[in-house]
Amino acid sequence: MLEKTTRRKIKTDTFHCDFQHRLNISHLGNSMLNVADTHSTERQFGMTYLNTINKTWVLSRLAIELEDMPTEHAEFYIETWVENAMRYFTRRNWAIYSTDGATTYGYGKSIWAMIDTVERTPQDILAVDGGRISQYLCKDKECPIKDVSRVTMPNLTKYSEFRITYNDIDVNGHCNSMKYLDHVMDTFPRQHYEKYQLKRVEMAYVAEGHWGELVRVYTGAESDYEHNFRLVTLQDGGIETEVCRMKVKFIDKVQQ
Amino acid sequence: MLEKTTRRKIKTDTFHCDFQHRLNISHLGNSMLNVADTHSTERQFGMTYLNTINKTWVLSRLAIELEDMPTEHAEFYIETWVENAMRYFTRRNWAIYSTDGATTYGYGKSIWAMIDTVERTPQDILAVDGGRISQYLCKDKECPIKDVSRVTMPNLTKYSEFRITYNDIDVNGHCNSMKYLDHVMDTFPRQHYEKYQLKRVEMAYVAEGHWGELVRVYTGAESDYEHNFRLVTLQDGGIETEVCRMKVKFIDKVQQ
Q: Quick one: how far is CA B193 from the chain centroid?
């Protein structure tokens, strides 16, 4: 039997970095999802297997909290494991740390559901392949960040908009989870990134965004440090369908 | 002395794939640039060293031609080498092939200049560090695609627009070369990708795009298979500055 956790060494490539020579947050997020995909695929409960029985994983909530962000050319590990599996939800965590173990960059926590790809209905996770996932639970491994919440927020009225296009769509055929984060991070001006560094992002996914749909990004700041986002797709007649909610927290930039 | 070429094994991660479970072209392109950065950095003529003497590489032209595109979970190599170095230009090529050598995915050709990061003037490449780059030329290695051209095109009048934001900017402080390609690929509808597959992209970079600038993407098709793009930034008063030109060629989708 394979180990309960999977970790992968990742190089902070130059062209996955931002203007401050630090790894782009959505690249980190997609790398976390890629390592999760490797972990579940190797243990036969990944999307590749699930698709053969008309099922797939759906990311419901995700929190990433950072002490620091890997800088250009740095090598680091992303490690992931499943904390728990219930009938309709499973919890997956991540740790992100330097290859020498001296620096902890951060952690991630997430909640996933399993759905039928045709009916789009919730599926019993523990019924798949005799509850295979239960063999790989890692209940006691430390993930010392605040739990991922339902991501509640005040009423927001200010907004910008974007249309979902080719690069937004992933293998699931709808807008990639991290692409919503890209569009949210794109709302901040250069001066904001020069003054603050990202501390925590928290996302709750409600519905799927599809190719061609117009997304309205409602935004409101509780302070310079805390920003709320509510993303909705706009249907004919102006009817809004909520696709996701995000909280993005910054701290004053730590001098290196 | 290190070998003249560098190659890196790359896994086609799920969340770097598009809706057809094939690697995203701009992810492939940035991976090619990342392997090029590793190649030049390890041989002491990369941006990391050049920045210490106020110089940097500037991508002038790039062509990528594909036989096929790696599918989800496939492992492949990107290999790169410098074909030639002259006073003001150097030629860098790439080969992209499966780890068992059985499948050639494609090739890349490019032309780079070196500039002073303060004065923005062209620099004598052969004068840097005693012409170190000349030790690593690989003049005879095969790269069997058409040469990268000046990318000329007819007058174009139809356009869409986007604004350069956080995620467009790379470590050089201006819009990333592959992000222009992303914005171009985003102009094609889903039906186009279902019918055709990408054969060749060719890009000529003219000037740099900066954070906050509005980019107008002029477009015109010579046929369903051949598309021209001319990207300009718009200054106050509507003055246009050309930033890049692209040709994107498709072929009928090869049935797998």
A: 20
